Amino acid sequence: MKKRIATVSLAGCFGCHMSLLDIDERLLELLQQVEFDRSPLNDLKRFTRRCDIGLVEGGCCNEENVHTLQEFRRNCDVLIAVGQCAVMGGLPVMRNAIMHSDDPLRECLETAYLDSDKVYNPSNQIPNDAALPLLLDKVYTLADVVKVDYQIPGCPPSGDTLWNTLEALLAGKPVELAYEQLRYD
Amino acid sequence: MNKPFKFEIDGIEIEAQRGQSIMQAADEAGVYIPRLCDTEGLEPQGSCRVCVVKQNGRAVSACTQPAIEGAKVENETEEILGYRRDLVRMLYHEGNHLCPICEASGRCELQAMGYRLGITQATKYPYLQPARPVDASHPDIVLDTNRCILCGRCIRASRDIDKKHVFEYVGRGINKRVGVNGNKLAETDVKLNDRAIDLATCPVGCIIQKGRGFFAPIGERQFDKKPITLGVGPGKNRGKS
Fold first, then answer.
1. A63-113 pLDDT, tens per residue?
2. Residue of A nearest to B134 (CA)
3. What total of structural domains would you count in chain A?
4. pLDDT tens digit string along B198-215?
5. Considering only the top CATH level, what class is B5-76?
6. CATH number of residue A30's parent domain
7. CATH number for the domain whose boundaries are B81-225
8. Cβ(B16)–Cβ(B27) below 8 Å
9. A-contacting residues of B 37-96, CB under 8 Å?
């Protein structure tokens, strides 16, 4: 039976998903072995059944990210953190370390929506619609929230890195990456 | 008394002079022992422990431990590699080592050590995420101690080579950090051409030279193609390309 893969981008930029598409014609080979379940690649919004592998890009910056991640953990046998944002927070985690601030989140929002001279915001309000997911006090890595089985570092991991890792995982072998394939940036 | 003697590293016979450390003898013989706090031209201080080896079964730091005649030293065994991976992981968790946004990425020795040790596995430690203020007061230099790994190379370079004592350790234990001799860097007599500010001195992106960020394109940076090793690592015209 084909293995089922689910993917999602949380507080990420979809760069890791673009990198997955970068495996080019090997996508066809991958599709011989796997079937995609919930993923932005096929626009499935919910899990249709339990999956073997969950690829998660991006860390958690709002409550919706946390719910999605917990759903992935519940529905995937093997959960993989893909990319620096999922592994250690990446670029969004910079807001945790806004200097000299007792309230980094507020300062971040005020700079983004009110104070900066680059902002055009006639209503002079920070977005607070009830439909928007609440931002967390800080950005969390995946491992802060759920148990992560593997991680693939990189910003983004190259197509070759993702392919080699997936191939090894599907074959049940330990992954061996060439020197150039292990990158943290 | 001053006759050279021999000892073994992973079964390879190494010749050493009296008073040489394991690392000095290994370097001369062309055997690489990984290191972060030790670099050519500075007094070894044995603080990062990445150079941990086993000498006759006892774990020691190779940069400070004198070589012993006839000793058996283990360097690249699975056990030692495991220690080194844990040490480098802990350094990653203590500071803010966000490679995608760091000017030192690609020439960073901490990052290169992660690559060399093949660190990919999910981690078991929490990220401390320090939020110490960045000191950008100096016209030519930025100091971001959130990226510091406390190797002390800037401290020793400033003290022993520049004779300026610009940097020093401040605080103890988990609160230990690198401070400057003044309220901020601009109040010290540090200059851009000091050895302490040289790109070869800071192994990470803590001491940054202004106006030089990202000078080498991706693919041509120091550790993009070759792992950190003897001659590719510390003190060997690092980052001068």
1. 999 999 999 999 999 999 999 999 999 999 988 877 667 788 888 899 899
2. A99
3. 1
4. 999 999 999 999 998 899
5. alpha beta
6. 3.40.50.700
7. 3.30.70.20
8. no
9. 92, 96
